[in-house]
Amino acid sequence: MRTGLVCLGVLCVLCGACVAADKQRPNIVLVLADDVGYGDLACHGNTHVKTPQIDVFAREAVAFSNFHVCPVCSPTRASLMTGRYNFRGGVADVFGKACCMDPAEVTLAECLKGAGYATGIFGKWHLGDDAEHAPNAQGFGEALVHRGPSMRKYTNPTLLHNGKPVERAGYCMDIFTDAAISFIRKNRSQPFFVYLAANLVHTPLQVPPELAAEFAATGLSESTRRLYGMIRSVDNNFGRLRAALKELALEDNTLLIFLSDNGPCSGSVPLDRHMAGLHGLKGTVYQNGIRVPCFMRWPGGFAGAAKVTRLAAHIDVFSTCLEACGIAAPPEGKPDGISLLPLLKDPSASWPDRTLFFQWDSGQIPRRGHAYAVLTERWKLVQPCGMDMRQQQHIRNRYAELCRLQGRGERSIDGPPRYELYDIAADPGETKDLAAEHREIVERMKQQYDSWFTDVAARWLKAAGSPSSQP
Predict the structure, then answer these.
(1) Residue 20 above 50 pLDDT?
(2) Which terminus, N or C, of the chain has the lesser number of Cβ atoms within 10 Å?
(3) Does residue 391 sit in the same domain as residue 456?
């Protein structure tokens, strides 16, 4: 939170004219699944998983088929909250200080709270647990969350309620959804922002036996049966949330967003899990690590049952929500993303051919040139190597195993840098490397990356005392 009084004062001035129009401003409900890949939904061709609630929503909503996020949890969450690339806010990893977002960052919750919204988070925060970094210090009036990147016990867990430890009975996804629905009921007479950030399907793969049992006859491995049971819980609770909005006559004026924070984790047998033809997995900058499901619906704001194929990303959610609510972006911390509202209203609307950047090298300090991708509507440059920390060896091993099982040969993301170029519009599975045929495109995109890194990692480079140094 930036100098609280200044920020809040600016926001109140910006929103003062809207106070009388509260009933016209939409509620915002952001549902973020954890480690759910693009291919983990029945509506994306998965014939084993059961996601009837999400499937119906996907048909009724505007579906983004070209939506991208960071390869791992905390960086995506930081960008969702700020509309900025995660390095800007001090988030580079999923452990230690590097997953604690700078309190000076202005969050979506702060902007909405300053405009008179009730704000609540339920589930996984993963941007810092201490008082300075906790969600209550970042604009959330109500917070029921777990600590860190994952929970040890998914049934009858110990959680943090507004910073204080509490014991809750039941399965985690049910607990978080119950709390979100209760918050909605309590605040239905004013605009509200609900951030339901599921911890499912993150490991450990703990699931009620009856949910995993639904997949007993599939022939899938035990880990994948458990994982699909966890997705079943996400789907069931998403349906409960929608039912509550409908019951309270809030559905038409609620912008409801469903997406995931990254691709499938290494916790299940690779070929057991439907991957929709995409390459890679969580932790890699290949498509299956960064391309995720994303659906948005707001009956009072735009027509549904549409598909958007233009390039969009996590950094766009912040500006989209603010524009939908008629709130100007904060003067501090200019967003890197842009509002998707024009595409939501008209999927054929004019849209820039953007260049987006993704990097995770698994270190506490970002390292230039390690494990990154540069993405446009047509081209994707991949430098997959350099995610080399010891605690992430399981991702590197699983990637190599996945390549063998998928018939891609002996491939590795260990070793020195290498540069691959894909015509991603024609080859979403990243099967044909065109780098040797288009060296000029490779060099141009490498230069674009280098300029981007110097910009977004400025805080880290300044601390190192050499803004242009290579690692």
Answers:
(1) no
(2) C
(3) yes
Residues 185 and 300 occupy one common structural domain: yes
Q: What range does the domain containing 314 cover? A: 25-345
Enter the pTM of the model. 0.94
Dihedral-angle region of residue 156 (phi above 0 means left; psi in -120 to 50 means alpha; beta otherwise)? left
Q: Which of 319, 345, 371 is the last residue of a domain?
A: 345
Considering the domain boundaries, does residue 18 fall inside one? no
Dihedral sign computed on CA atoms, order 120, 125, 130, 134:
negative
**Sheet architecture: strand order including 356-359:** 356-359, 372-375, 379-383, 420-423
Q: Is-contact 344 379, C-beta < 8 A?
A: no
- Over residues 64-116, the pLDDT tens digits come to 999 999 999 999 999 999 999 999 999 999 999 999 999 999 999 999 999 99
In a domain, 385, yes or no: yes
Residue 6 in any domain: the answer is no
**What is the signed CA dihedral for 156, 162, 165, 171, rounded to 10 degrees?**
10
Could you give the number of structural domains in the chain?
Answer: 2
User: Average pLDDT of 109-132?
Assistant: 97
Judge whether 66 and 310 are in contact, CB under 8 Å: yes
* Residue 349: CB atoms within 10 Å: 13
Contact, 262 vs 35, CB < 8 A? Answer: yes
Among the residue ranges 60-74, 322-336, 445-459, the one predicted with the least confidence is 322-336
Element (H, E) at 294: strand 294-297
Q: What is the 3-state secondary structure (H, E, C) of 324-391?
A: HCCCCCCCCCCCCCCCCHHHHHCCCCCCCCCCEEEECCCCCCCCCCCCEEEECCCEEEEECCCCCCHH
Domain identity same for 315 and 406: no
**Cβ distance 43 to 51 under 8 Å?**
yes
Q: Is 329 exposed, middle or buried (0-12, 13-18, 19+ CB in 10 A)?
A: middle
Q: How many CB atoms lie within 10 A of CB 41?
A: 26
Q: How far apart are CA 303 and CA 241, in angstroms?
A: 21
Half-sphere exposure of 426 (CA within 13 A, CB side): 7
